């Protein structure tokens, strides 16, 4: 279909003639008798290429050709493959054959994609863990430096819940600041040529990072709640 659109735009390709042949340059005129749907022969992640189907008796086979026969069935593949293997062996016992199912071919094509997705996932988890550890360290250090301030607040009547909200608020502010910078950097990268602009992905990632940031801030916040006011006032 793509070939027909490219070569005969706004025209009926049926009945047109094309010169087609092997890689040796032995071109033969072929008359178009039908149009079929596109096939992504180079991979599902690539656009459909121009493909011409020809009768092998008209086109001829070169010495290094590897003809492919497609079988479509609703039955189980095991018996079908066994029967086809037996038939081809009886017809040409010396011809090497390779049988493969659609699921096998898709699995081989997707295996590389799965590997890269797994690798990207591992790096993402590692980055998320590093961000959580870093935020925890910053908030914990801030709590340690503010021990006297926390003690004074509690001595003057501040409740433990207020201290918890104070420390969590600091972590939340850093998380929001980081998310805003990250989203802005993502849009800059998008302008450089990357076309992945799924809003749901941005929302999920921002929510996940915010949740991890609050969780990382919660431990030092709980520690700040348990500060003894008198001991905090003597803290240097």
Characterization of this structure:
The chain has 236 residues and is mainly alpha-helical. The protein has 3 domains: 1-67, no CATH class; 68-99, no CATH class; 110-233, no CATH class. 60% of the residues lie in helices and 4% in strands. The protein is built from 8 helices and 2 strands, in the order αββααααααα. The protein has a two-stranded antiparallel sheet. α6 runs antiparallel to α7. The protein is elongated and about 95 Å long.
What is the total number of structural domains? 3
Which word captures the global form? elongated
**Total beta strand runs:** 2
Sketch the topology as an H/E string, one letter per element: HEEHHHHHHH
Strand content: under 5%
Per DSSP, the total helix count is 8
Residue runs with pLDDT of under 50 for 5 or more positions: none
Please specify the SSE layout and strand pairing:
Blueprint: H1 2-7, E1 17-21, E2 27-31, H2 56-59, H3 77-91, H4 102-145, H5 147-155, H6 160-191, H7 199-225, H8 229-233
Antiparallel strand pairs: 1-2
Helix pairs in contact: 4-6, 4-7, 6-7
